[in-house]
Amino acid sequence: MRGRSKTFLGILVVIGLVIWLHNLNATRFIENSFRFFINNSAAFIYQTTLKLHVNAVKNEDATKLKESYHELLTKLRAYEADGVKLKLLEEENENLRAELRFFTSTTYNHVGADVIGRTIDPIGTTIIIDRGSESGIAINNPVITGNGWLVGKIARVEQTTAIVRLINDNQSKVAATAMNMVKSIGLVEGGYGISVRMNFIPQNEIIKFGDIVITSGLERGVPRGLIIGTVEVVEKKPQEPFQQAILKTAANLHTLTSLSIITSASGETI
Amino acid sequence: MISSRRILLGISYLFLVVGIVSLQVGLLFLLPYPYNKVNILFAFLSIMILLKDSGNIVWLAFFVHFLIELYTVTPFGVVLSAGTITFLVMYWLYRSLFTNQTIGTALAITLIGLIFYRAFYSLWFVVTARFNPAFAINWQPLFLIYIWELVFTLLITAIFYAVIVWFMPRFSVTLVKR
User: Residue A203 in contact with residue A182, Cβ under 8 Å?
Assistant: First the structure.
């Protein structure tokens, strides 16, 4: 028992030492070295699995084909695989063009980034991007895709990587406005990667299916007008002062590849 | 003097752990909810306790959770301390209470370990909520996620165990070494 107490104390001391050294930035070199290896291998795995997720090559029943058809079938599969790659490139190109159109019509300073991986902890709903503090990114910077569709906010920043908390994460909170008649103000909160809800909408204000929800601009660092999603279901309970709306997000949060991080609006420091 | 064999073994473990962490980061999103709540790293380490039958596994768990810390949004030290202490407790349970290498032991230490790990992790939520009123916890969906994680991690542990037994006939119900 005494031996176990010593072991337990020894481990606590080591953990405490590592935390202390981390806070002093003494372990930065070791952490960055590991991140370098994990980021590169994770990025490769993420991009490869994303391609498999988008489409799959169908196999035909080769027993019915003669030998000459086998050769043609092999060529067809190669063309289909090229077709998948082309489709992905087209989607990425369109996404980048949409982001460019968005930024030419606004005055936001922004940084582009690629997604290299997703949540490592089953509890959180976060993604990892390949840009960090070296690129001017800071905590709580909004992250968008496409035509100014909000996907999340920066939750953690390192030198060359950052972690984005998606809007459907349980700890995500975004000040929002619904584009209904009265421009209802509320708070968009995530639900453990499953749902996105707009809460604290006054009971007497009318909000309906299809209403677009945008960022209200009332939150420091998040400009007004970023599209969050559209209302799918409204939940009202007569005895409660507020109603809730379940939203469908504008961006597809499951197949994110390239994003933009808004670091500041025209000259303003976020 | 450390032999070259030990050095090679250490480097192999390093690459294995970095590889599994990369898989967890880059691959798990492919699975739909709730299957993507599986904790592959936890299952891997649980099986390693039975396979290696050595206290060095606690230090392996320390290293794995140090790598996980690089990619979480919780304050540094929460996952590291929760994970390392959990695996220390799991190893003690394996050596003192279960003392065999059956599938029952594998599942039992995974179950107890995961409950202990999430209890420790939830303690951080409680402490944070106490000092930061804006940090709200919704316990019902959180516990649902914990349950899904438990179910699928136990399933993966059983699969890992079955694979190990298939390839290693010596890995049977013998008692642990003294």
Answer: no
Higher pLDDT, B28 or A46: A46
User: Taking the mean position of all CA atoms in its chain, how far away is CA B58?
Assistant: 10
The size of chain B, in residues, is: 178
Choose among B29, B134, B141: nearest Cβ to A118: B29
DSSP per residue over B112-140, as a string? HHHHHHHHHHHHHHHHHHHH-TT----HH
Q: Which residues of B touch A124 (CB under 8 A)?
A: 72-73
* CB of B35 closer than 8 Å to CB of B152: yes
Please tell me the predicted confidence (pLDDT) of residue B110: 94
Contacts of A53 (CB under 8 A, 6+ apart): A255, B30
The three-state secondary structure class of A166 is strand
Considering just the CA atoms, what is the radius of gyration of chain B in Å?
Answer: 17
Q: Is B18 touching A (CB cutoff 8 A)?
A: yes
Length of chain A, in residues: 270
- Model confidence over A28-83: pLDDT tens digits? 888 988 888 888 888 888 877 777 665 443 333 445 545 667 677 677 666 666 77
d(CA B89, CA B58): 9
- Check pLDDT > 90 for residue A143: yes
Computed over every residue of chain A, the mean pLDDT equals 82
- Cα dihedral A20, B88, A122, A157 in deg (nearest 10): 10
Distance CA A92, CA A100 (A): 12
CA A184 to chain centre: 26
Give, rounded to a whole angstrom, the gap between the first and last alpha carbons of chain A.
54
* Gap from B87 CA to chain A (nearest CA, Å): 11
pLDDT given for residue B109 in this prediction: 93
Q: What is the pLDDT of residue B98?
A: 84
Cα–Cα distance between A260 and A152 in angstroms, integer?
Answer: 11
Q: How far apart are the C-alpha atoms of A158 and A132, rounded to whole Å?
A: 5
Taking CB atoms and an 8 Å limit, are B26 and A117 in contact across chains? yes
Record: contact B76-A49, CB cut-off 8 A: no
Q: pLDDT (tens digit, 9 = 90+) per residue, B50-72?
A: 888 888 899 999 998 998 888 88
Alpha-carbon gap, residue A59 to B165, rounded angstroms: 34
What is the C-alpha separation between A228 and A186, in angstroms, rounded? 12
Contact B61, B44 (CB under 8 A): no
